[in-house]
Write a structure and sequence with these properties.
By secondary structure, the chain is α+β, with helices and mostly antiparallel strands. The chain has two domains: about 240 residues, ATPase, nucleotide binding domain (Nucleotidyltransferase, domain 5); about 240 residues, Nucleotidyltransferase, domain 5 (2-Layer Sandwich), CATH 3.30.420.40. The strands form seven sheets. A seven-stranded mixed β-sheet has the order 17-18-16-15-21-22-23, sandwiched between helices. Strand 17 and strand 18 form a beta hairpin. Helix 10 crosses helix 15. The chain is globular, with a radius of gyration of 22 Å. The termini are far apart. The N terminus is likely disordered. The structure holds adenosine-5'-diphosphate. Adenosine-5'-diphosphate binds next to helix 11 and helix 12. The site of adenosine-5'-diphosphate has 15 residues, from helix 11 and helix 12. Key enzyme in the regulation of glycerol uptake and metabolism. Catalyzes the phosphorylation of glycerol to yield sn-glycerol 3-phosphate. Pathway: Polyol metabolism; glycerol degradation via glycerol kinase pathway; sn-glycerol 3-phosphate from glycerol: step 1/1. Keywords: ATP-binding, Glycerol metabolism, Kinase, Nucleotide-binding, Transferase. This is Glycerol kinase.
């Protein structure tokens, strides 16, 4: 455990808060957490998204920083900098920023994780037979989603930039690295292992940037940040006034949420129900080989030990409800779906496969498209709404089943968060389908909370993970109530519906 200059004040309680920064895809948030892990202040602001061509997504790294700094100052100003023990960062993952080492100026718009511009580069590498190497070393697939091929694209389009990067004049970072650089006034160029593990450049077994992969992608080592643990003092920020405050925790947003949900033991898992779903399961100290579209990823490094996770994603979850609202106009607002779904005893045989943008884990079929089956003259909007909510649960079950199969570990409780986790019908149906408890925490700000926990551990604000585990409280636990025969019948129906697409 690392204690710095602020240690005495942390111990005697005058520094009462940890500042968690949650730099998301569409907004920057700053949250203050007290010793009980409760949120005492929040500020949030959106920033600009640019879509310069179909499939391309860019952001302005300077704007991200300006917005992040503003919300951070807002919440810090409310309690004063001397009350803050440390800062932790959780961030949208894989988004790539390059900037000038000397001036700190970004040299290209940030290329966002969603951006598909490096699809051809991924295809070429796949044709050259490189995917297996990437998979073995990084746990990832060759997909434009990850940062590495975004850099390849930049250099193919600007060879002079590569020469400058080789000379050490240009720096690369994911958003954690960019924020840390800014917070420390350009003194620290570092990332944490969880973020490094999303770049396609990092060997998750050797825990270092990998020269073979750097060579395949044409990325100079000189531009890469130092890889550090997820919980340690990386540097200090003096931007808030008062004594410099340690920046002491970093993790990618999904890993931070896993930590914030205190999924510390192998076999514990969380599902975030947002636009899509992100499921992560802690698998302990050894990575499990990825299979069937599951990714192997670093969960975090803490106290000298790296822990790993399996990750699966569902592309369309809450977005299916938004489509019923905006596309069909049969919902006024998405929360209304809860009562509508309960207004009918079942979907009357209707299944909704919301594969608007292909199917993710375990099907991994980019060509699949959405479908509604089993319509009759008696089908009502309640049935469609119910089928949409049930589809979120079926898709999540498919991912969890696969995780259990691949890891050999049986999940006992699923911890949940995200906007659609407010839907009680959905969570009850999820518990029924899985046959395990589904637990919604009192504090649903799990991403920022995970960043705060990581930072707080590093400066002695919290003692250890056992203490953090006591701070996690269920607001409500949904217990399975459906009998096995009914469940199996429903799941067979879902599988038949999905089979039309795969
Ligand atoms: P993201 O971070 O992906 O933008 P959020 O976690 O903010 O997503 O969740 C937003 C999603 O949750 C939307 O797709 C919305 O349709 C869905 N959602 C929000 N509230 C409910 C609800 N009560 N029932 C079902 N879906 C909901």
């Amino acid at each position: 455990m690392v204690l710095d200059g602020a240690g005495d004040e942390i111990m005697n309680g005058t520094r009462s808060y940890i500042l968690g920064l949650d730099q998301g895809t569409t907004s920057c948030r700053a949250l203050l957490f007290d010793r009980a892990g409760r949120v005492v202040r929040v500020a949030q602001e959106e920033f600009t998204q640019s879509y310069p061509r179909p499939g391309w997504v860019e952001q302005d790294a300077d704007e991200i920083w300006a917005v992040q700094e503003r919300v951070m100052r807002q919440v810090a100003g409310a309690v004063g900098p001397e009350a803050i023990a440390a800062v932790g960062i959780a961030n949208q993952r894989e988004t790539a920023v390059v900037w000038d080492r000397a001036t700190g100026a970004p040299l290209h718009p940030a290329i966002v994780w969603q951006c598909r511009r490096s699809t051809d580069i991924c295809d070429q590498l796949r044709r050259a037979g490189a995917e297996v190497r990437f998979q073995q070393k990084t746990g990832l697939l060759l997909d434009p989603y990850f940062s590495g091929t975004k850099l390849t694209w930049l250099f193919e389009n600007d060879p002079a930039l590569r020469r400058r990067a080789e000379a050490g004049e240009v720096l690369f970072g994911t958003i954690d690295t960019w924020l840390l650089w800014k917070l420390t006034g350009g003194r620290v160029h570092a990332t944490d292992v969880s973020n490094a593990s999303r770049t396609l450049l990092f060997d998750i077994h050797a825990r270092d940037w990998d020269d073979e992969l750097l060579g395949l992608l044409g990325v100079p080592r000189a531009m890469l940040p130092q890889v550090r643990s997820s919980s340690e003092v990386y540097g200090h920020t003096d931007l808030l006034g008062g004594q410099p405050i340690p920046v002491a925790g970093m993790a990618g947003d999904q890993q931070a949420a896993l930590f914030g949900q205190t999924c510390f033991a192998p076999g514990t898992a969380k599902n975030t129900y947002g636009t899509g779903c992100f499921l992560l399961m802690n698998v302990g100290g050894r990575p499990i080989s990825p299979a069937h579209g599951l990714l192997a990823t670093v969960a975090w490094e803490l106290d000298g030990a790296v822990e790993y996770a399996l990750e699966g994603s569902v592309f369309v979850a809450g977005a299916a409800l938004q489509w019923l609202r905006d596309g069909l106009g049969i919902l006024r607002e998405t929360p209304e779906s809860d009562a509508l779904a309960r207004a009918v005893p079942d979907t009357a045989g209707v299944y909704f496969v919301p594969a608007f943008t292909g199917l993710g884990t375990p099907h991994w079929n980019p060509e699949a498209r959405g479908m509604i089956t089993g319509l009759t003259r008696g089908t009502r909007r309640e049935h469609l709404v119910r089928a949409a909510l049930e589809a979120i649960a079926y898709q999540s079950k498919d991912v969890l089943d696969l995780m259990e199969q691949v890891s050999g570990v049986r999940i006992t409780t699923l911890r949940v968060d995200g906007g659609a986790a407010r839907n009680d019908f959905l969570l009850q149906f999820q518990a029924d389908l899985l046959g395990v408890d589904v637990a919604r925490p009192e504090v649903t700000e799990t991403t920022a909370r995970g960043a705060a926990f990581l930072a707080g551990l590093a400066v002695g604000f919290w003692r250890d993970r056992a203490e953090l585990a006591t701070l996690w409280q269920a607001e409500r636990t949904f217990r399975p109530a459906m009998d096995a025969q009914e469940r199996d019948e429903k799941c067979r129906g879902w599988k038949r519906a999905v089979a039309y697409q795969t």
